[in-house]
Amino acid sequence: MPMHREENIIRAVEAIEAPEAKPVVSSLELLTSENILNPEEKDRLSFIIKPEFVERLSQFPTSMLLRSLESMIADINVDLRGRYLEQRNAYVAIQLELNKRFAAGEDGVASPAFRPRLKRKHQPKDIEKLLSNDTQVIDMDFLHCVGRRTVSQGHAAKAFAGEIFDLDEAIRFVRTTGNTRLKLEILGIHDSPFMQFQLAAYREDKWRDKQSSVKKSITSTVGKLEIASQSNPRVKGREKEWAAVVTAQKVCESFGMAATPKNLSAALQAMSGVTSIRRDKIKERIASAQRYL
Questions:
Q1: Which residues contact 85 (CB under 8 A, 6 or more apart)?
Q2: Distance (Å, rounded) from C-alpha 225 to C-alpha 242?
Q3: By C-alpha distance, which of 283, 194, 198 is closest to 242?
Q4: Which of 24, 57, 60, 191 has its CA 20 to 30 A from that of 93?
Q5: How crowded is the C-beta side of 21, counted as CA atoms within 13 Å?
Q6: Cβ-proximal residues to 219 (8 Å cutoff; 6+ apart), any chain
Q7: Are 92 and 51 contacting, i.e. CB atoms less than 8 angstroms apart?
């Protein structure tokens, strides 16, 4: 569906439903804070994250979803409490759609830890808890999308049992299970550091710190390549891609993973969403970048 200008994704989805336009909130049934926090619905995330909304998102290009997500995050940060409750449906739905696209290997979609997302820090306490729960569910859906099915305990087992991820069972698991360490064990990723590295909520502190250091490394390498590009036209326009491939090699080394084309490709996709470089060409790109670093 061609779009001639960047729009908020909520209005874009509205355009699918009724091009002549009608009130956005009523059309998408975005819930008020009273509805969202209604005790009778607290364990039914599908009541909030409308499946039909997620389905509509499949009609939009990834670039538009990411731009809309960034715009939404900026908007929510202006008024943390009210805006997240109003846009929660759209925020989580976009993240779920991006999980599907990551699993399908679509170029431009990074793992949950490395894509635009709201941070819990400085949020009002009730919103912080809500956002924490939503982030955990997004991580669980990501695990399901990339093929995890062998979860064997309680609500988590039910969430992962079918080909369609059960959001309601996922939120029950999040709300009723103990600390992060226990959840990692139940989900079977307590001894999977590279998987934790890709997640926004389900990771030990050391892998959260690794995420932060990798983001800083990419930024620093981009800066060095931008300087190099001023006197080397060959570098111009390749700074971000080359920074990503160089950092992918460092990520493999830090996790004790051999720098095989397969592992380099996995690291590259996880942190930058790049899947368009052929595996057998990644080392060639790394060598090219390193000449200017």
A1: 31, 32, 33, 36, 127
A2: 8
A3: 283
A4: 191
A5: 3
A6: none
A7: no
Residue 78 burial (CB < 10 Å; 0-12/13-18/19+)? exposed
Q: Position 160: which residue type?
A: F
Query: CA-to-CA distance for 240 and 42, rounded, in angstroms?
Result: 42
Contact between residue 270 and residue 110 where contact means Cβ atoms under 8 Å apart = yes
Nearest Cα to Cα of residue 241 among 108, 117, 113: 108
Tell the burial category of 130 from Cβ atoms under 10 Å away from its Cβ (0-12, 13-18, 19+). Answer: buried
Secondary structure letter of residue 280 according to DSSP: G
Smallest CA-to-CA distance from 249 within 199, 203, 289 is with 289
Could you give the dihedral angle defined by the CA atoms of residues 127, 128, 134 and 140, in that order, rounded to the nearest 10 degrees? -170
DSSP 204: -
Tally DSSP H helices, then E strands, for the chain. Answer: 16, 0
Which amino acid is it at 282? I
Q: Alpha-carbon distance 173 to 185, whole Å?
A: 13
41-55 residue pLDDT tens: 455 555 566 666 777
| Whether 1 contacts 59, CB under 8 Å | yes
Q: What are phi and psi of 89, to 5 degrees?
A: -55, -50
Q: Which of 249, 268, 267 is nearest to 259 (CA)?
A: 249
What's the full length of the chain, in residues?
Answer: 293
Query: 94-141 pLDDT, tens per residue?
Result: 999 999 999 999 999 999 999 999 887 767 777 888 889 999 999 999
| Domain boundaries, given as residue ranges, for the chain | 9-197, 205-290
Q: Cα 260 from chain centroid?
A: 25
Tell me the pTM.
0.84
Q: What is the DSSP string of 2-40?
A: --SS---HHHHHHHHH-TT---HHHHHTPPPHHHHT-GG
Give the side-chain half-sphere CA count within 13 A for 114: 28
Helix (H, G, I), strand (E, B) or coil at 275: coil
